[in-house]
């Protein structure tokens, strides 16, 4: 049967075949979308940014499946993808498009080694902005503007070729995720990285790792320090559960929760670090209006009641303008605007780059 053939490619989906699609992970939902399209036995499959918001391991898995569908089923693939490296490694022929024009075209192999494709592209260039204590600082811009790359440089996931990060007036060296976490900078990501088979409370407890000093042996033998830390960490996690108003689901497996609640759990895990600064990478991506309103309420509550400084990437301009103190605007890796929301909203450069409409 056709469904059995599809399950042969998408083994994860066979394992999750009785689960509700809305409760599966982002990568699994991408697989469902491709699998559903394949049920129509197409001659050509159009894929629009299948890697968006996914972890590298899932991206590699999805592209491996897509490659198999092309080679074994003879399905032609037309792919739109921002991840240039993985797109060119899997394609036969490619077009590089910039501002609506084809800048380069040719075999994917030749473009993969073309310095004009990679050597001349800078994710971020000469960007400088500050974040004030206790403020909500938004970073906005079109897709590919360098927003997530900026956060990745701040918390040490990327190693910039030049520039520096100052924290409390002092330069941080070296910049690594562990060091930045120890300094007090916590991070959420576009894609959810929760432990789906663990409860809500246990996922939040993971965020207390920085506050655990006991050795593995102390924990295994339940020595006094380990017992004391476990009690404190659980109490702190329970406080976060209450703060986020999710007491009714604290013992529920995260994988069984709708997407909006999973996003809230990820926020809770970041809060568990007690970091004075939170970097939130599209915390409302994929949410409906009601879920966005709820998330906005908690971001404001975290900022107001806990005094947490928040750096926020968000595409919803209405949300950004409503909850931010200041907004920095990126376009092609450069700052084109930096001010309070009302000033940014009226800036012609921002309107042209981000909103794509002319000022009357």
What would you say about this model in short?
Helix content is 42%, strand content 16%. It is α/β, with parallel strands linked by helices and 360 residues long.
Describe the structure.
The chain has 360 residues and is of the alpha/beta class. It contains 16 helices and 12 strands. The chain has helices at residues 2-9, 11-15, 26-38, 56-73, 84-90, 108-112, 147-154, 177-183, 200-206, 216-220, 224-243, 259-271, 289-305, 317-323, 341-345, 348-355, and strands spanning 44-48, 76-80, 93-98, 101-107, 136-140, 166-167, 170-171, 185-188, 277-281, 309-313, 326-331, 334-339. It has a 6-stranded mixed beta sheet with strand order 8-9-10-5-11-12, with helices on both faces. It has a two-stranded parallel sheet with strand order 1-2. Helix 9 (200-206) packs parallel to helix 12 (259-271). The longest helix has 20 residues, at 224-243.
Secondary-structure element order, as H and E?
HHHEHEHEEHEHEEHEHHHHEHEHEEHH
Determine the fraction of residues in helical runs and give it as a percent range. 40-55%
pLDDT under 50 segments (min length 5)? none
Write down how many β-strands occur, each being a DSSP E stretch of 2 or more residues. 12
Strand order of the largest sheet: 8-9-10-5-11-12
Main sheet: strands, sense, barrel: 6 strands, mixed
Amount of beta strand: 15-25%
Q: Estimate the global geometry from the Cα principal axes.
A: globular
The span between the termini is: 59 Å
Structural class: alpha/beta
Tell me, rounded to a whole number, the average pLDDT.
82
Radius of gyration: 22 Å
Number of helices: 16
């Amino acid at each position: 049967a056709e469904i059995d053939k599809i399950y042969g490619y998408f083994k994860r989906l066979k394992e999750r075949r009785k689960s509700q699609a809305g409760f599966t992970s982002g990568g699994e939902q991408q697989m469902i979308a491709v699998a559903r399209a394949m049920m129509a036995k197409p001659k050509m499959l159009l894929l629009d940014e299948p890697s968006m918001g996914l972890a590298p391991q899932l991206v590699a898995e999805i592209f491996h499946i897509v490659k198999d569908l092309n080679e074994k089923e003879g399905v032609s693939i037309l792919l739109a993808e921002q991840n240039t490296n993985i797109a060119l490694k899997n394609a036969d022929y490619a077009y590089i498009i910039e501002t609506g024009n084809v800048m380069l075209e040719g075999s994917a192999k030749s473009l993969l080694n073309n310095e004009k494709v990679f050597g001349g592209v800078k994710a971020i260039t000469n960007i400088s902005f500050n974040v004030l204590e206790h403020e909500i600082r938004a970073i906005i811009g079109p897709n590919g503007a360098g927003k997530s790359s900026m956060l990745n440089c701040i918390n040490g996931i990327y190693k910039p070729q030049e520039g520096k990060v100052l924290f409390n007036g002092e330069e941080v060296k070296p910049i690594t995720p562990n060091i930045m976490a120890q300094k007090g900078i916590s991070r959420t990501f576009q894609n959810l990285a929760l432990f789906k088979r663990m409860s809500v409370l246990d996922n939040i407890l993971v965020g207390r790792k920085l506050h655990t000093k006991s050795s593995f042996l102390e924990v295994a033998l339940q020595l006094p320090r380990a017992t004391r830390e476990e009690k404190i960490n659980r109490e702190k996690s329970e406080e976060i559960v209450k703060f986020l108003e999710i007491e009714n689901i604290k013992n529920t497996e995260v994988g069984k929760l709708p997407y909006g609640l999973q996003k809230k759990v990820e926020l809770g895990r970041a809060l568990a670090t007690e970091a004075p600064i939170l970097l939130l990478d599209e915390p409302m991506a994929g949410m409906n209006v009601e879920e966005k309103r709820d998330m906005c309420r908690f971001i404001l509550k975290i900022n107001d009641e806990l005094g947490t400084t928040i750096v926020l990437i968000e595409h919803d301009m209405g949300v950004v303008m409503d909850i931010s103190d200041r907004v920095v605007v990126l376009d092609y890796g450069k700052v084109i605007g930096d001010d309070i929301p009302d000033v940014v909203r009226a800036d012609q450069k921002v309107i042209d780059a981000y909103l794509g409409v002319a000022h009357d």
